[in-house]
Amino acid sequence: MKIILVYQAATDMPRAASCDAAGFERAAAEELLRPIAPVTVKKGDASAYRIYTGTTPASVQTAELLFDFTEPPVRTSLLDDVPLRAWKETDRTYSAGRWRLMARAQWRFGGGRQAETRKDTLARAGELIDRLEAEGRDCIVISRGLTMEALKTALRRRGYTVDGGGLLPRPLDRLRAAKQTERCGGCNHNCLLSNPKCDVGRNKARAMKG
Questions:
Q1: Is 61 part of any domain?
Q2: Engineered SS bond to 2: which of 39, 138, 158, 207, CB 3.0-4.6 Å?
Q3: 169 pLDDT higher than 60
Q4: Cβ pair 1, 136 in contact under 8 A
Q5: What angle do CA 105, 24, 14 make, to 5 degrees?
Q6: pLDDT per position as a tens digit, 17-27
Q7: Exposed/middle/buried for residue 170 (C-beta within 10 Å: 0-12, 13-18, 19+)
Q8: Is residue 198 included in any domain, yes or no?
Q9: Residue 72 φ/ψ, nearest 5 degrees
Q10: What pLDDT does 181 receive?
Q11: What is the pTM of this model?
Q12: For the domain that residue 62 is a member of, what is the CATH number?
């Protein structure tokens, strides 16, 4: 089973230069409901894949932007991003970047005022992976932010390799995930993902699976 992770397209939400706690939370909540910003890309054929998206407009629109598909995408709240909250109540203004940085730190280390902790989001990611493995189909998974971060971590904990993507992911970036047993061991790539023409590695990997 191959899993392609796709970062959701950017929304058309303008970013405020600075805001107070209430303003940051309003903007963070609004962004989750905004459509994607206009962008032109070449569509790919996803007829062989099951597509999973979150329930927000931008998540579904990302699937429609990138792929031609025969089955409608499966929408699930398991892929919705964590709504960020201000790390403290204050009328003092900070840059939007600082608000996001501190909110993400609270999510990662627990406590604070966030809607979920990292442990909660990892549990959601695990529930999604259970569903994907039960179906066993090659799939495309569209998400963003903290939910995508948790999903990558949860996949690695389940024995998947996650290939591709940079240190700072961008909208529409793609990553590929497959079980580590699909790596042939005789080369540095995952043969069933990044080099499907590697016949020796591919056959050895499939034999290891069987």
A1: yes
A2: 138
A3: yes
A4: yes
A5: 110
A6: 899 999 999 99
A7: exposed
A8: no
A9: -65, 145
A10: 65
A11: 0.84
A12: 3.40.50
CB contact at 8 A, 112 and 140: no
Helix, strand, coil % in the chain, rounded to nearest 5: 40, 15, 45
Query: Does some domain include residue 43?
Result: yes
Q: How many domains does the chain have?
A: 1
Q: pLDDT of 28-65, one tens digit each?
A: 999 999 999 999 999 999 999 999 999 999 999 999 99
> Sign of torsion, CA 141 196 135 47?
positive
The verdict on residue 58 lying in a domain is: yes
Residue 50's nearest CA partner among 71, 20, 35, 77 is 71
**End-to-end CA gap in the chain:** 13
Give the tens place of pLDDT for each residue, 80-100.
999 999 999 999 999 999 999
54 within 8 A of 79, measured Cβ to Cβ: yes
Cβ atoms within 10 Å, residue 196: 12
User: Phi/psi at 176 (nearest 5 deg)?
Assistant: -125, 140
